[in-house]
Amino acid sequence: MSWGFLRDLLSGVNKYSTGIGRIWVAVVFIFRLLVYVAAAENIWKYEHDEFECNIRQPGCENVCFDHFFPVSHIRLWALQLIMVSTPSLLVVFHVAYRENREKHHNQKLYTNPGKIDGGLLCTYLISLILKTGFEIVFLVLFYKLYNGFQVPHLVKCDIRPCPNTVDCYISKPTEKMIFLYFLVATSCLCIVLNLSELSYLIFKYSIKCYLKRYIKKRQ
């Protein structure tokens, strides 16, 4: 899969972000997207082929693999990357709408179409809430699917058509667990950044409204 579209999306969003938003873009691009493409994808590339059970019963190994890995870590991580990045499209679309509206009316309607105020502020806040929500949902999903953030060396399987309890071995479990912890850490960092930016924008807008009311009252 080509990740160029996600890189272009993040680059476009970077133009309209606050300082905290730019840090979020850097974290997603460097510590998540590049790590995924450069290293993590290769670790899980042959996970099914390298999953071994100490029995040759037809179908047993496949059933056991499906039970312990209902969704591949790496595919779930890819889906998470896409889902947490796409809400930023709302901001890009809103700015494009403003620019198109100015072009249609052939006059300057906004001081700066990319300035975070008015309707664009609401869109930006919604995108932050969606990104935070997706991060939390995927962390819970990882935890539920894999019984905690663990990759065991050995799993015991007694699902049919296995005739008895068999031992199955996961390839490179330590390396996979390190990347899983890295995934969780970067997700938590992104949640903190999103919540910080959300709080900053709400606080900034509240102060701005208060000052406007105060000046109006004084006048």
From TrEMBL:
Q: Where is the signal peptide?
A: none
Return one GO MF term: gap junction channel activity
PROSITE patterns documented for this protein? CONNEXINS_2
Record Pfam families: Connexin
- Connexin N-terminal domain residues: 42-75
Which UniProt keywords are present, listed alphabetically?
A: Cell junction, Cell membrane, Gap junction, Membrane, Transmembrane, Transmembrane helix
Q: What does this protein do?
A: One gap junction consists of a cluster of closely packed pairs of transmembrane channels, the connexons, through which materials of low MW diffuse from one cell to a neighboring cell.
Which proteins does it associate with, and in what oligomeric form? A connexon is composed of a hexamer of connexins.
Q: What is this protein called?
A: Gap junction protein
- The source organism is Lophotis ruficrista
Which gene carries the instructions for this protein?
Gjb7
